Predict the structure.
Amino acid sequence: MLCREIRNARVRFFGIRRLKGDYRVRRRMDKKDARILRQLVLDSRTPLSRIASRVGLTDNGVRYRVRQMEERGIIRRYTVVVDQAAMGRPLAAVLRVRADPSSVGPVAARLGASPSLSQVFVVAGAANIVAIGDFEGPDELRKFMRAHLEGKGIQSVEVDLITEAVHPGHGPP
């Protein structure tokens, strides 16, 4: 009993938790972690040696911290940002869809399967689905709306055209 109390006191004091038979220290993100993460968000292909020199750590120190952030789920994946305008899809639009409550899931799934849409969210508010997509032009947008957003539990759709991306994507923390 005393041994368990000592172990629990260590857990409370040092932030140690038992995982699969071993003890690991849970650590909060500090300023160096945030700077590393900021560099990776700006360009995930930045060599760890360059990040290390900017942050003031060794390569191994940065590698360890990145691995820790991956294990803790802070970094979920590395991805590529595509310039849709350069690919011939210069018309960016936000679609705000109001669907019947029973149709929200199927409509969101149908929209999520569309290659024209880069992001689909189920939200609370005037609309219950918000989607962001890129189109070749107004004709393609109209065709998309006729094919995916007429009938089938849709109450209304509002379209906002994006004229300028001030802070696109997931920026640095």
